Amino acid sequence: MGRPRRKNVNKKRINVIAVGVFYFFLFFIATSLHQKYRYFQFPLPDEKFAQVMVLDLLVGILLGLAVVGITWLAVKRSKKLKNLSHEFYKMLGPLNGSEVFFIAAFSALGEEFFFRGVAQAVLGLIPASLLFGLLHVGPGRKYAPWTIFAVIVGFLFGLAYEWRGNLLLPTAAHFVVNFVNLRFYSQFNPKKKA
User: Fold this and answer.
1) pLDDT band at residue 87, thresholds of 50, 70 and 90?
2) How far apart (Å, rounded) are the C-alpha atoms in residues 62 and 65?
3) Has this prediction a pTM greater than 0.70?
């Protein structure tokens, strides 16, 4: 009789290449539409261009860190959200630093250029934020808090985009949120006390 096969609990569940292709496709659609209709907003290339870009990059990073902080506080205080963190861990599996960076960068570029850059320009802030939330519907009702969170964050990123007129700001914020949270969730240990 042969030895029983051990399950590899750290087996990757997410296909990083497929994720990259999906987000590249969103980015490609958005940039193609922009070529024809000029949807994206960026600051004018004048003498203050570099200063505005650096400022908006910093504001985006701070906004992203604020969203991460609020997320972590909510997870720490809610058993339901801790359980959802465990589900994300099971779905993601362990990811190394370059995989986290790849997913965070491609999702930030694809989603922000598509939802803020194009959908918000065509449909408006609220419909674009709701569509953004629909992209974040998980398999089952237990993922509903993630969808609601995505709608709220989509609305927040959309407001920041309208406020500054610079697609860099929500893209930077989105990258920070995804990078930090993906890093956390891909290494989440449900047995460890929070």
Assistant:
1) confident
2) 5
3) yes
